[in-house]
Amino acid sequence: MIMKKINKVTVIIPTYNAEKFIGRCIDTVISQIYENVEIIAIDDGSSDNTINILKEFKKIKVLENETNQGPAYSRTKGLMQASGEYVAFLDADDYWDEDFISATVAFLEKYEDAVAVSTGYIGIDLKGGTVEKPKLSEEDKAYYGEKGNICPDFFEFWSTYFGVLTGTVMMRTSVAQQTKGQRSELRLTEKI
């Protein structure tokens, strides 16, 4: 019997004063039904108990920044150490369904020319209500279907739905590393 190789996925989690959320975040990565996952968590100079919580997890690689540099800096630091064929970024206060990695990797393996895949997401607003994004038009629902499809025009999709968020993307590590990472000086929507 020939066993199919399960390609490694690297998950990069930047953290900053995330002691309330980081345990749940990491647990959802460890609990993925996909088996070959490397987790790199970067503590970005937290002043709370985040670093100690990270060190309790034996299955993750923990990197530290002495001072707060921002999530882009931490994501790039993790990206440059990623050893998986695929890479995903997950913010410390976010979490995934147990099949996120298996579904996104299956898509990238089916569409070998695709650089990345993005999914929708479900969030909780300040009043405890459910927020689903993106809300696709009926035409787009028919085109993308349940299992997804190649986006014919990424920039049109982006401008219509603003639907590509950090924790919804899986990409090929080699392509992501070629970019040299995210620009750390662009901190418009990040807390310091």
Automatic annotation (TrEMBL):
Q: Name one Pfam family in it.
A: Glycos_transf_2
Task: Outline the extent of the Glycosyltransferase 2-like domain.
Answer: 10-130
- Source species, domain of life: Bacteria
What SUPFAM superfamilies is this protein classified in? Nucleotide-diphospho-sugar transferases (SSF53448)
The protein's name in its UniProt record: Glycosyltransferase 2-like domain-containing protein
- Provide the organism lineage as a comma list: Bacteria, Pseudomonadati, Campylobacterota, Epsilonproteobacteria, Campylobacterales
